[in-house]
Amino acid sequence: MANNDSYDGRSMVSDRRLDSDAGSPTPNDTFTESIIDRRTFLSLSATTGAALALPGSATADVRGEPMTDECAFVVNHTPAEYETPIGIEFADQNALETFADEYATAPDPDLPRAPKAVIRDSPTLAAHAHLTADEVASVLGQDGIERLDFSPGANPWWTLESPYADGVFPPVEEARNYVSYDELLSGLDHLESAHPDRVRVEAIGESPGWSNRFTGENPDPKPIHVAEVTANVRDEESFAAKEKVVYSLSIHGDERAGAESGCRLIEDIAAGRADDFEPLLDDVVILFLFPNPDGWVARTPQTEIPWVEAHDTNFQRGNASVFDRQPVDTNRQYPTIGWTNPSFRPAEPNGAPDEFDDIVPDSLSIVDHFRGYDNVAFFCDYHGMYTADHVVFGLESNASFDYGETHEFDEICVRNGKGMRAHWGDVGPIEDDIATAIEEMYQWVDDGAKAVPDGESYDGLFDWGTIYDSIGYQVTGSLFGWAGQPEAFGGLGATAMSPEVILSNHRVAAQKEWKPYWSRHYVTAYRTSMRECAETIVREPSATVATGGQDTAYVTTDALTRSSADLPHTDTPSVRNPDRRDGCPTEVRRSSEVVHPTSTGRSSVAADANDSSHSLFIRFDGVRHATEGSIRVTDPDGTIVREIDLTAKEDPTDPTARKHDFEDAFVRRPRAGRWDIDVNCDADVHVDTTVIDVDGEIPDPEAVLGYEQREYAVNPMQFFADLEPYLEDGAMDGVGVSQVTAGQLVRDDGTTCRYDTLVVSSDAGIDQPSYIEAIETFVDRGGDLVLTDAGVALLGELDVGAAASIEPTDVRDVEMLFAVLEDRALDHPLLAGIRPRQREIWTGPQLGYTTERDQPATIVDRDAFTAAGGSVAGSLSGSERDGDPGPADSGVGAGTLSAGDSEITVLGSVLPPAQQTELHPFGMADYALSFLGHTLVCNALGFEQRRYDADGELVRTYGEIR
Q: Do 677 and 667 contact (CB within 8 A), yes or no?
């Protein structure tokens, strides 16, 4: 089968040139007098291969009055081996039996694929078959054939009369193929008509739309639909009051598990067959979003996909949009707070540039529509992945969850794992199907059993963590990241997660073919997830913090505050920016080029930086087609700053390689000169570069993206103010440096402390001896000290307990790629309640940090720390802050030291201030702690996290009171 998702940058460049630079036809232009234009010819020839030698030719010439025009087009414009899905109507029983004798087959009990053809006797005489052009010609020669219609999808009868006598969306075991987009619309319309009290369907916008070869429509946009499902769905007052659970289904069009699961669940709930959902419908509305119709209809041969070189009947990851001659990833175009990638087109409806209506109309519609719902409690964005050590991952959203939302997310994941284990027990019942699917999808894998999930969490069925914890990278602009951010910053304020199921995505060597034997399992997994998510929201778990009566003080300081007023392109003066300027003049330089394999296997492109260059962003698309080689980015001095091993990436059994379909690199303040991007691989790679030049420090988002800066004022110490309402006992007070210096940590008698613990997260006041002495006095009197982030620098200044032997030179500032705790001692009290997968302490994008090395930490030399008697829970690694990229410097990132009866805790990176130097038009978060981060802080404070069910029964604890 031809490359299922191949990307031909050359045809893309040609198409854009014809669209934008077309002039008068040249005299020797073959197409000047033709009724078909060059673009149409190129798309047809790309689809049907060498058989299309001239405009208007086709691969076959099968004709017959019973055939619909669309059926004839598909049969005659696809390769000879292509099997067109066709619905057939017969005039009499003899005609049906004659056809059945030739083509109908019984289902294989192992469900490797759907039967060649199936038939029915009532309510009409009909068949559904997958037929090649030769077979269609043979059927047309048979007597008694009344009609042949193109009929893609799962239900064999949905295009015929009385299509739903046996149901709308058939069980996977009986399905003919993946549910088709048009079949979905027909099915939803039927379900709404049949069950108006439970189902309401709304078209909320349109996709950008491909060109349709059959109809000639260019573009041919498709509606985006939301199905609202609940009891008394049309009772507006009741509807508004209920909590909402959103299931986003297959935003990446080639990750079908979500859509396949969701449409079947809609039918079961509507028909009253979903007993596990029935008790929930009086309290919750379930919203099923189908966000990417373009990626869905790409499977039909009528769809022209400009970057596909050969015939293709596969789903596409993104929609039909192109920006800077690259396909748009539909899951990167949302207006998330914090860092915004300059290569994305964030779909904020308020103030969106006009061009966004063409590039991201789908995302704009989704944002606008979902902001109209009240009480969106949970948002679940269903995805698919390749191989992994668990069947399903639960990805924590890049949203600034407070303590309660963090526990709600964690409880939902616990319930997901329990639900899947209750159904399967462990991976054993499905491991043979997994191994078979791996071998079929990744043809170079000889033994699929080697990649069967073998993880320990819920017996290999389910595990969860941040995006990095689970799939090894981080993102900005994601749909569920937007949904999880506060309503005040344009989000939905929902607890958000993204499940990823294995083998829902594909690699180049495997055409996206229907595998009933495996698809039934991912539908089961996601049906289980959907039930557990809805039940958890209805049952309303809660969480508290038990302190044992301890009181905590944390040092507040304006030095940690970051405000939009600090920026040169806003109007309000601030302490940081008292002299207003007319912004920082900003220029954006973009380039796009396709690098083709050569006889030597190596090609390169370049990007030029100058003294005013603020950042360089490089994106590589098409790397999923490479089976070997590498990509290197080198600076003007010849230093390699980024290297991508494509050979490792290609191997689905390599657990260390990132398996997503693209790669990128981001360089802050690139050195002036030529940056070389060397591509050495066996596939075309589309290299897109964006250089932002700024006369100053911070780019103006209006110049780069077209959006004015949203106002914000954030401080990471807000974490403690947000945590206080969850305390069962004890107090939590903010104190200033001056208050500490004035002795307010110690009672008037000078012998006891007002607080049990002091938290310092900034080095403000480090140069004031009286401030340091006040902290030393607090520790001497029995108070515990927690130093986080830049506050760890105080460790080198303190002359108390074990800290007295730590010198200032033993404490270093570094910048990390991600705030990942390494070399963990999971039995350490600081890590009580932490699971092995949890490694990322906080997530950077919503705090303005990028996906490159810019996340701050303050670490302590391990030798000095252990020599002082310190106990190490984990390390952090990074390069010297503001220095040249170099070998990672590793030091203590989490650990404890004794100081008499007191304890000094070090957390090198957990509550950093926001970074304002990168694009962040939609504001910032105060903090971005993961579950690991929340737990580290609570454990450092000696608290116990407690979780309760809806009846107030204690169900789980994390850590213990110390």
A: no
Which of 544-573 are b and which e, b meaning 16 or more Cβ less than 10 Å from the residue's Cβ? Answer: bbbbeebbbbbbbbeebbbbbbbbbbbeee
As a whole number of angstroms, the distance between CA 245 and CA 393 comes to: 19
Tokens of 813: 């500032």
Give the pLDDT confidence score for residue 48 in this predicted structure.
Answer: 35
Backbone angles phi, psi at 922, to 5 degrees: -105, 15
CA 571 to the chain's CA centroid: 35
CA dihedral sign, ordered 573, 575, 580, 586: negative
Amino acid identity, residue 347? A
- Report yes or no: 405 and 543 within 8 Å, Cβ to Cβ: no
CA separation for the pair 406, 865 (Å, rounded): 32
Cα-Cα-Cα-Cα torsion 25, 31, 34, 39, nearest 10 degrees, comes to -100
Residue 923 contacts by C-beta under 8 Å, 6 or more apart in sequence? Answer: 337, 338, 489, 564, 710, 711, 712
**And the tokens for 944?**
């116990």
> Which residue in 785, 784, 797 sits closest to 860, CA to CA?
797
Read off the pLDDT of residues 861-870 as tens digits, 9 standing for 90 and up: 999 999 999 9
Cβ atoms of residues 753 and 722 within 8 Å: no
**Of 121, 160, 484, the residue nearest 338 (C-alpha):** 484
Residue 49 has pLDDT above 60, yes or no: no
Q: Distance (Å, rounded) from C-alpha 385 to C-alpha 279?
A: 32
Spatial CA neighbour of 71 closest among 49, 86, 52 = 86
Q: Which among 492, 515, 494 has a CA at the least distance from the CA of 503?
A: 515
* pLDDT the model gives residue 660: 65
Q: Is the peptide bond before 306 cis (omega within 30 degrees of 0)?
A: no
Non-local (6+) Cβ contacts of 384 within 8 A are 252, 254, 255, 256, 257, 258, 500, 501, 502, 503, 504, 505, 522
Other Cβ atoms within 10 Å of 416 Cβ, number: 29
Tokens 């049309």 sit on residue: 234
Name beta bridge partners: 299.
none
Answer yes or no: is pLDDT of 54 > 90.
Answer: no
Q: Which of 123-132, 502-511, 836-845 has the lowest mean pLDDT?
A: 502-511
Beta strands in 41-197 (DSSP E): 84-90, 117-120, 126-131, 145-150
